[in-house]
Recover the amino acids of this structure.
């Protein structure tokens, strides 16, 4: 555990120095820290520490474009959304919570930013239960961090630090994909399904607020119906319309929820990014954004490289930068970088009511 902790500390320090050299970013960053909660789109290694979980990416060919070609547990060929969000904010990538020893004084690490994200997690606790850190469990860990900081710094300094930090949330895709795969005759309506997700999420985001979170960055779900795993199941190999429709409904619901929270809590602010709209632009107009392959996964096996995920026995493409999807569910590093760039410095209808840069100022 300790060796893993020091590895992440050293790697983050080196990456941060390189980033500041090339960008001229303030050494202290735009915010004190970045705290990340969510699923595999932002997991930076927590699932490596879950012995019974199969939802892992700590093996080749994952990480083939990461420094040192290291498979770090990111479900990507390189960096993911969490890394690029941190880089844009001028802070180190948040350290995986489970890489820290619970018997050590982790105050400095907690102040620098922590990632609680876990591959397979969803809004519902039942989603991949026992195979990941559920979203509620992630918030429990956040509460633990809050308690330690209060004990070490006092309540006032802790709340001041957390209120100035960014809390990134990426959650919901796993439920939407499962819904899109389900038998429509056995399912609730899309509207009722999304309503139940948003109602659960409301309580969870309020818990985060009660634990000191004030600046929320919510990265909405993408066009899940266009991921290779769902395309491959379609006879025409086109996008699964149910998946994309339910993603649109979910993003609308989450956006409304955040707006309601803002209206009831004057000290809370947020930036919502509609990944669905942004990535559909890449899919529908690939040449405008430098993409050539919008349907097939880069790494995998079988039809569209989407029958089996990215494993050491899988084949992988050499032209990863022109693929939207890395494996049958996850984007390439290129896609993640482009999406995060728009979320950071873009405008409506993709990011609103303000972008991440504005939120951090």
């Amino acid at each position: 555990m300790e060796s893993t902790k020091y590895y992440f500390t050293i790697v983050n320090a080196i990456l941060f120095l390189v980033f500041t050299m090339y960008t001229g970013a303030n050494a202290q960053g735009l915010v004190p820290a970045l705290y990340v909660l969510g699923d595999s789109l932002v997991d930076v290694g927590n699932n490596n520490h879950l012995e019974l979980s199969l939802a892992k990416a700590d093996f080749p060919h994952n990480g083939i474009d990461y420094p040192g070609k290291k498979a770090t547990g990111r479900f990507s060929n390189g960096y993911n959304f969490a890394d690029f969000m941190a880089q844009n904010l001028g802070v180190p990538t948040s350290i995986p919570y489970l890489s820290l020893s619970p018997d050590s004084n982790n105050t400095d690490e907690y102040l620098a930013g922590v990632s609680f994200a876990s591959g397979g997690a969803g809004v519902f606790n039942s989603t991949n239960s026992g195979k990941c850190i559920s979203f509620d469990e992630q918030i429990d860990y956040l509460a633990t961090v809050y308690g330690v900081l209060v004990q070490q710094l006092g309540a006032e300094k802790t709340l001041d630090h957390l209120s100035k930090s960014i809390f990134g949330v990426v959650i919901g895709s796993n439920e939407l994909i499962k819904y899109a795969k389900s038998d429509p005759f056995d399912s609730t309506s899309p509207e009722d399904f999304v309503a139940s997700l948003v109602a659960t999420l409301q309580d969870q985001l309020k818990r985060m607020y009660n634990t000191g979170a004030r600046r929320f960055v919510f990265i909405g779900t993408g066009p899940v119906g266009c991921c290779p795993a769902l395309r491959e199941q379609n006879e025409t190999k086109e996008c699964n319309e149910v998946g994309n429709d339910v993603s649109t409904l979910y993003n609308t619901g989450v956006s409304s929820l955040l707006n309601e929270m803002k209206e009831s809590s004057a000290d809370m602010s947020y930036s919502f990014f509609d990944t669905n709209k942004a990535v559909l632009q890449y899919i529908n107009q690939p040449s405008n954004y430098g993409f050539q392959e919008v349907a097939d996964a880069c790494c995998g096996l079988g039809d569209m490289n989407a029958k089996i995920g990215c494993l050491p026995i899988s084949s992988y493409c050499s032209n990863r930068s022109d693929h939207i999807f890395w494996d049958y569910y996850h984007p390439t590093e290129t896609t993640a970088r482009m999406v995060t760039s728009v979320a950071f410095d873009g405008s409506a209808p993709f990011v609103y009511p303000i972008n991440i840069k504005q939120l951090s100022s």
